[in-house]
């Protein structure tokens, strides 16, 4: 090589900003090091030239040699290795190796780049990715609006929504996963307005067509591209909602018959009285009692008595409208609340119920009959007055021989005799 070219390459080696080492391929001895290498490793140049590349690497010499061979063969160049500096700190290094042929023989030119910061970022990213993918909590990122789409979801989110993989959900409109798509509009508008929603509860439909209740905690912000996005966490609260519904049902219903209990019946009666007063609607109430029910319990036992009550309840429910309310008022006494029904309509239904019950033949007990009192609400009278008149009508029906009905408005009239 001519002197000018030799001087040029020497200057390039000395002044190159990247740490560069000339290494003997046989023993990995460092033949020369430029000033940038001395700065990178913290060793003087003369000290570096008394060391091997393996001395600098936090790896066995055999592993370093394999890396160099692969790099020179072009299969993995550059390669990564951890190395230790003069002050004991570990660095992540990326080494690009190439073979140089000179008059003195072959050597390896190794350009070393400190990539510690980049590797720290990559490790942090991998740690986040592992956290995101393995945490059992359902995370998502989505675009706003009724036509919003998922931008990112983790496997827990996919499982929650009945998907085999996150990718299966990415092209779907999020609104299509709501039981009522209008709820998506309300959710999106509220989040855009407030910036955050905490444990917003809603019904969703999974890809395997299962309805679930979820609590969504979501935040509005802008991503790296300046787009508005929703970041949220979904929690499956289906079981909690089911338990709440079950408890609410138990609080409002009689355990034996499945009818409303007295407490719920009183609440419904109060509501219907207010509605009748406000809109001037008709309202009638029936109260009936099983005749001689004590004999059933005494002769056949309380288990048979309970079976009779349950059977009568089913029959009554089969005869009334969906808008009517049937309640077990207490013991063998029942109430039927008839919104929008006048006195004549109440009497007709009462007679229908009386006949339907009398037609039942129970295996061990035989025939059971009922006595019924009916009353139509009088404007302004109040709940206590209505119940008092209803009670008197029922008492009159029982006193007149049972298996019959009496209208509170006709207590002075003769009772309506039932079929024997």
Please describe the structure with a list of short key phrases separated by commas or semicolons.
single chain; alpha+beta; Beta-Lactamase; Alpha-Beta Plaits; 3 domains; 5-stranded antiparallel β-sheet; 15 helices; 17 strands
Question: How would you describe this structure to a colleague?
Answer:
- This protein is an alpha+beta fold and 420 residues long.
- The chain has 3 domains: 3-119, Beta-Lactamase, CATH 3.30.450; 135-241, 2-Layer Sandwich (Beta-Lactamase), CATH 3.30.450.20; 253-410, Reverse transcriptase/Diguanylate cyclase domain (Alpha-Beta Plaits, 2-Layer Sandwich), CATH 3.30.70.270.
- Helices cover 42% and strands 27% of the residues.
- It contains 15 helices and 17 strands.
- The strands form 4 sheets. The chain has a 5-stranded antiparallel beta sheet with strand order 2-1-5-4-3. Strands 7-6-10-9-8 form a 5-stranded antiparallel beta sheet, sandwiched between helices. The protein has a 5-stranded mixed beta sheet with strand order 12-13-11-16-17, sandwiched between helices.
- Strand 3 (79-84) and strand 4 (90-102) form a beta hairpin.
- Helix 12 packs across helix 13 and helix 13 (302-319) packs across helix 14.
- The termini are far apart.
């Amino acid at each position: 090589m001519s002197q000018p070219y030799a001087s040029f390459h020497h200057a390039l080696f000395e002044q190159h900003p990247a740490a560069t080492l000339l290494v003997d391929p046989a023993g990995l001895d460092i033949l020369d090091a430029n000033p940038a290498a001395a700065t990178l490793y913290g060793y003087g140049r003369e000290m570096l030239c008394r060391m091997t590349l393996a001395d600098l690497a936090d790896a066995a010499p055999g592993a370093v040699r394999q890396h160099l061979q692969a790099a020179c063969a072009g299969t993995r160049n550059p390669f990564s290795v951890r190395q230790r500096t003069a002050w004991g700190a570990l660095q992540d290094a990326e080494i690009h190796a190439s073979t140089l042929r000179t008059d003195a023989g072959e050597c390896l030119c190794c350009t070393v780049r400190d990539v510690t910061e980049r590797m720290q970022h990559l490790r942090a990213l991998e740690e986040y990715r592992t956290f995101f993918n393995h945490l059992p909590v359902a995370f998502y990122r989505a675009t706003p609006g009724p036509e919003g789409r998922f931008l990112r979801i983790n496997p827990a989110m996919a499982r929650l929504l009945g998907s085999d993989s996150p990718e299966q959900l990415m092209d779907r409109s999020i609104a299509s996963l709501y039981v009522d798509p209008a709820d998506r509009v309300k959710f999106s508008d509220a989040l855009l307005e407030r910036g955050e929603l905490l444990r917003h509860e809603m019904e969703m439909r999974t890809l395997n067509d299962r309805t679930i209740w979820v609590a969504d905690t979501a935040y509005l912000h802008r991503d790296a591209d300046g787009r508005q996005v929703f970041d949220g966490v979904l929690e499956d609260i289906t079981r909690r909602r089911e338990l709440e519904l079950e408890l609410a049902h138990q609080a409002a219903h009689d355990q034996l018959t499945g009818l409303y209990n007295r407490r719920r019946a009183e609440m419904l009666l109060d509501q219907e009285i207010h509605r009748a007063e406000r809109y001037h609607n008709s309202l009638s109430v029936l109260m009936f009692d099983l005749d001689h029910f004590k004999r059933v319990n005494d002769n056949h036992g309380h288990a048979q008595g309970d079976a009779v009550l349950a059977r009568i309840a089913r029959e009554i429910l089969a005869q009334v409208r969906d808008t009517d309310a049937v309640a077990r008022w207490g013991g063998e006494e029942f109430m039927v609340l008839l919104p929008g029904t006048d006195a004549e309509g109440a009497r007709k239904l009462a007679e229908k119920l009386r006949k339907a019950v009398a037609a039942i033949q129970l295996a061990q007990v035989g025939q059971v009959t009922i006595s019924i009192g009916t009353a139509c609400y009088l404007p302004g009278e109040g709940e206590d007055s209505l119940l008092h008149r209803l009670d008197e009508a029922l008492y009159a029906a029982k006193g007149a021989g049972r298996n019959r009905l009496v209208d509170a408005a006709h207590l002075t009239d003769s009772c309506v005799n039932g079929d024997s």
